[in-house]
């Protein structure tokens, strides 16, 4: 791709991924999304994701299993089959009745889960969230990195690819996805401040965390804006969908596509230039980190500045200056054609 020379790989802050070890003393986690009767007993850990059946959360489930093996506890993952905040809330309400030791939650709409989080904590259940840095009625929120910095990094690379001028669009999974909107907002503010020659053609576009929807909307945008030169994706489903539209139109050499992605879904598009770079944190490590933090809290051990969760990228947590319940890791990755093939998920 003619713009590829501008894409110098950023500093990779995670040198290697956590691998799956052997099962400790013969214990295994029950199947994801189907907590067994043993998982309803005290001491169980349950991770509730936005949506099951997509690559991102399939990978996160590996971290849940790794945590169960390492910690020697029962841990499962579940979530709604569609991207529905209402279904997620209903699911959490049902889990509260099981009285697990802790719930880890990746909310589709952080605002919608506040009442059920309060219910869970009132029942003595510890609650740790992820991708919800504005929530305060939680025991802790674990983030892979500072969200504003992440959004600014993506925008800076998009601007370099676009040479600081031209039309672009930002995609998010949903307008209620707090982290997606934080990345888009931080990127847009940076663009306005430092790259006035660029123009966002619309407010953030929702894909509903669906690659087919991202593909259809990208096609529509390309037709409506023939000079559209840049795409920033928030959901891991966005950039593969956008890339399909770019490749179909033969615009690999004329567009710049950057955003959150999973290597297995994006490698072919990165290799052929339909995607310029993906940004991510390993969902496996995030799942393991959330539950490791929850276990410390269950055991009465506080999370503080410098806490080591024993998970790559989360060895030295920092407290967010915006919210003392938010703890930041150092787990950002940027992958281009040079290194996307080095990751097997």
TrEMBL record:
GO CC terms, sorted: outer membrane-bounded periplasmic space
One Pfam family from the record: Peripla_BP_4
Domain Periplasmic binding protein stretches: 48-301
Domain of life: Bacteria
InterPro entries cross-referenced by the UniProt entry: Bact_Solute-Bind_Prot2, Peripla_BP_I, SBP_2_dom
Signal peptide extent: 1-20
Keywords: Signal
Molecular function in Gene Ontology: carbohydrate binding
Primary localization class, coarse: other
Transmembrane segments: none
Compartments where found: Cell envelope
Entries under SUPFAM superfamilies matching the protein: Periplasmic binding protein-like I
Recorded family membership: Belongs to the bacterial solute-binding protein 2 family.
Stored PANTHER family: ABC TRANSPORTER PERIPLASMIC-BINDING PROTEIN YPHF (PTHR30036:SF7), D-XYLOSE-BINDING PERIPLASMIC PROTEIN (PTHR30036)
Protein name according to UniProt: Autoinducer 2 ABC transporter substrate-binding protein
